[in-house]
User: Fold this.
Amino acid sequence: MHFVEIEGRRYAQFERLRHVPGLLHAFSTRPMNVAPRDGAGAAERAAQRGMMVSDWGLDTGRLCYCEQVHETRLAFVDNSQPGGPLPGCDGAVTTRAGRPLMTFSADCPLVLIADPGRRVLGLMHASWRCTVALLARRVVELMVERCGCRAADLLAGIGPGAGPCCYEVQHDVYDAAADLPERERCFTRRDGRLYFDLWEANRRLLVWLGLQPQNVELAAECTMCRNDLFYSYRREGAGCGHFGLLAAWTDVGREGRALRRENLSLDEVG
Ligand SMILES: [Zn+2]
Assistant:
C-alpha cells in the first residue's frame, strides 16, 4: 500500500487505484477511530470521521456511510439523499462527484470497485458473512445494470483485513461458503485448524464476475499482524476501534486541491 500523511494523520491507499484520475480514496490508520457506533465516544468518532473527509477536500455534510449489518443490501447514492447513515447497507454505489462514501472495519476487508471511464464507484464491507453471500456480485451487478459498466473495465482493490495467516474459522463458515467459486482454494488447513482467505475469496469472486485478474489488487495487509496500523476485532476484542475506507469522485477544483495536499508530505511505511 501507499501511505500518505495529511495534517499529521496517516492514510493508506491502493497502489493502483490511487492513480485513477478524479478518484479519491483512503483508509484511515490508528489512532483514528471513525466508525458510527452508538455509545461512549460517538461524538469523538464522528469528529474524526469528519476530519478524515475534510483532509481529502470533501464535504462532511455530503458523506453517506454504510451501517453494516453483515447482509447484502446496497444503497445507490445520488444527489437526492441527505448525508448520513445508509441503514441496513453493507455496500454503496455512486456516480456523483463530491459524494463521499464510507465503510468501516476491524478485520473485515473493505473493497473498492471503480469504473474510471464512466466514473462509477462502489464500496463494500466484505465480512465473512457478506463474502459468502456474494455481496461483491451484487455490487458489480448494480454497477453494470444501473450504470452501464462493463465488468472487464472495472478496477478493484481489496483492503486490509484479517489475512490467511491468521483468520481461523470454524466449519460452519466453510459450510456457509458453498456458493463461493472455487471454495477449496479460499480455505487452508494447518495443524488441524481451518483458515479462511477472505482476500482470495473476494478476488476470485471478482474475476469470476468478469473483472480482469490484473485489475484486482490486494492490499495484502493483515490487520491481526499489523495491529500497529489497523484495528483488529480478533486481536483486541469487542469495543475495539474501527478504521474506515473513504472514496469519492472529485470535481475538478477539489481534485486539484487534494492532489496538492498529497504532495506535501509523503510518508512510506515499510
Ligand atoms: Zn496475519
Remarks:
- Residues 27 and 100 are 13 Å apart (CA to CA).
